[in-house]
């Protein structure tokens, strides 16, 4: 009878959700350091202190765990990088905030191994299947969001670019960040982030941005 009590069922659900979140947070950290391909139920059981059976009950199999980890990494990225930028006006102000948040997200090691999606993209960019599709969808949405802010800045008269220029700037800004993330991890230095910020600032000024709008990217 107690097993059918709604309060008992809700309590179990809350505990199950909390356990799932904790396991996935450990999984995202692990993947950022070691890559997604090596993530398994057994490996995560050792790292998280949970039993293999409990993790298998949450995710069913390795692919289910990998897909859930990608979704968790995406959610954290949105919370840290995208949502705070939405407090700023669409276009140039939001674009600058996105770039600054992006730099801070990697430099502050929100994930132990730097950028989560840099790690998973390297693992799965050439491996067809549901996991690659999930990674590609996340990256497609991110790059598309950056491009939308560049376009909005042009439409508002804050940047002076033709269609090719919009595409090039939307490609170049995240590329600078990705290179800074990789070099910082390799060399254990903050210097690549400072160089990326300067390069982003120069690109935006070259595209017609007012210097006063770029203060968040000052070194």
TrEMBL record:
Residues 91-200 form the Tetracyclin repressor-like C-terminal domain. Keywords: Transcription, Transcription regulation. InterPro entries: Homeodomain-like_sf, Tet_transcr_reg_TetR-rel_C_sf, TetR_C. It comes from the Bacteria. Pfam families: TetR_C_13. This is TetR/AcrR family transcriptional regulator.
């Amino acid at each position: 009878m107690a097993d059918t009590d709604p309060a008992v069922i809700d309590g179990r659900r809350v505990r199950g959700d909390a356990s799932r979140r904790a396991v996935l947070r450990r999984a995202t950290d692990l993947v950022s350091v070691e890559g997604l391909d090596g993530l398994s139920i057994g490996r995560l059981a050792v790292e998280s202190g949970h039993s293999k059976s409990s993790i298998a009950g949450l995710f069913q199999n390795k692919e289910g765990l990998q897909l859930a980890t990608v979704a968790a990494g995406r959610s954290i990225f949105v919370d840290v990088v995208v949502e705070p930028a939405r407090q700023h006006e669409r276009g140039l102000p939001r674009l600058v905030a996105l770039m600054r948040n992006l730099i801070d997200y990697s430099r502050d090691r929100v994930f132990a191994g730097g950028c989560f999606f840099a790690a998973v993209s390297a693992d799965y960019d050439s491996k067809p299947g549901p996991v690659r599709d999930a990674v590609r969808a996340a990256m497609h949405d991110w790059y598309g969001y950056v491009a939308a802010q560049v376009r909005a800045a042009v439409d508002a008269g804050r940047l002076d670019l033709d269609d090719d220029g919009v595409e090039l700037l939307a490609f170049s800004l995240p590329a600078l960040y990705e290179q800074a993330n990789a070099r910082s991890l390799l060399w254990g230095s903050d210097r690549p982030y400072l160089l990326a910020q300067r390069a982003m600032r120069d690109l935006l000024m070259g595209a017609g941005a007012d210097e006063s709008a770029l203060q968040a990217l000052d070194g």
